[in-house]
């Protein structure tokens, strides 16, 4: 009995050492650039960039197989960070300039929700609260607008709406530099609207 236990311990120790040595000898070095890109990505694994997750997308960016503007949850801030990291030109979000009109957030229509929990299971950032056969709701500050919760809903009670701009979320748009130089009027008109909605008289 004792000899069997000692033999088992010896075999376990041998294979443990062998696996540890193999991990050191056959270790695949990860590119530091890929690690830096992956650290900037939001890690929602939503697939909107057409890759299986953030890590594959980071690898594609590092090898030049994908542009830096395919991540809607990351938004323009992510594009700017990636452009600074890689020293490349800043691109508009999406494949076309009008492909992204601004940040969006999921909203659950409470009267229609049946509490099936399918949206909760689909959300990669745990931004939906609820329980079985109970109404669900979305934590707006946590929602990345990935839209992964929309398709699983059997009663179509989830809508994606634009995030309302406030004084904290509003930012200066990029200048248009058109021939008539009307971009300043557009910027200040938008700023006046935000101020009117958020500042009490």
What is shown here, in short?
The protein is mainly alpha-helical and 201 residues long.
Walk me through what this model shows.
The protein has three domains: 32-99, 3-methyladenine DNA Glycosylase II, Chain A, domain 3 (Orthogonal Bundle), CATH 1.10.15; 103-163, Alpha-Beta Plaits (2-Layer Sandwich), CATH 3.30.70; 164-201, no CATH class. It is flat. By secondary structure, it is mostly helical. It contains six helices and four strands. α2 (32-40) crosses α3. The strands form two sheets. The chain has a two-stranded antiparallel sheet with strand order 1-4. A two-stranded antiparallel ribbon has the order 2-3. The model is unreliable at 96-100 and 176-184 (pLDDT under 50).
Q: First CA to last CA: what distance?
A: 87 Å
Low-confidence runs: 96-100, 176-184
Q: What count of structural domains?
A: 3
Rg from C-alpha positions? 24 Å
**Tally of DSSP β-strands:** 4
What is the SS-derived class?
Answer: mainly alpha
Q: Which CATH class of the largest domain? A: Mainly Alpha
| Sheet with the most strands, sense and barrel status | 2 strands, antiparallel
Examine the secondary-structure arrangement and name the CATH architecture of the largest domain: Orthogonal Bundle
Strand content: 5-15%
Task: Please give the count of helices.
Answer: 6
Order of helices and strands: HHHHEHEEEH
Q: What's the CATH topology label of the largest domain?
A: 3-methyladenine DNA Glycosylase II, Chain A, domain 3
Largest sheet, spatial ordering of strands: 1-4
What do the pLDDT scores average to? 80
The CATH homologous superfamily name of the largest domain equals: Electron transport complex subunit B, putative Fe-S cluster
What overall form do the CA principal axes indicate?
flat
Helical content band = 25-40%
């Amino acid at each position: 009995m004792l000899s069997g236990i000692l033999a088992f311990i010896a075999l376990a120790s041998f294979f443990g050492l062998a696996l540890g040595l193999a991990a050191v000898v056959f270790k695949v070095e990860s590119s530091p650039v890929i690690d830096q890109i992956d650290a900037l990505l939001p890690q929602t694994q939503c697939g909107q960039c057409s890759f299986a997750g953030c890590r594959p997308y980071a690898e594609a960016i590092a090898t030049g197989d994908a542009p830096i503007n395919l991540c809607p949850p990351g938004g323009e801030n992510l594009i700017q960070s990636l452009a600074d990291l890689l020293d490349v030109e800043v691109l508009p979000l999406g494949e076309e300039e009008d492909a992204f009109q601004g940040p969006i957030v999921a909203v659950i229509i409470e009267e229609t929700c049946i509490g099936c929990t399918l949206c909760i299971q689909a959300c990669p950032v745990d931004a939906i609260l609820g329980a079985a056969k109970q109404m669900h709701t979305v934590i707006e500050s946590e929602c990345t607008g990935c839209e992964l919760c929309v398709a699983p809903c059997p009663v179509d009670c989830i809508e994606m709406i634009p995030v309302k701009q406030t004084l904290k979320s509003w930012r200066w748009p990029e200048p248009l530099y058109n021939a008539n130089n009307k971009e300043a009027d557009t910027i200040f008109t938008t700023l006046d609207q935000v101020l009117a909605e958020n500042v009490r008289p």
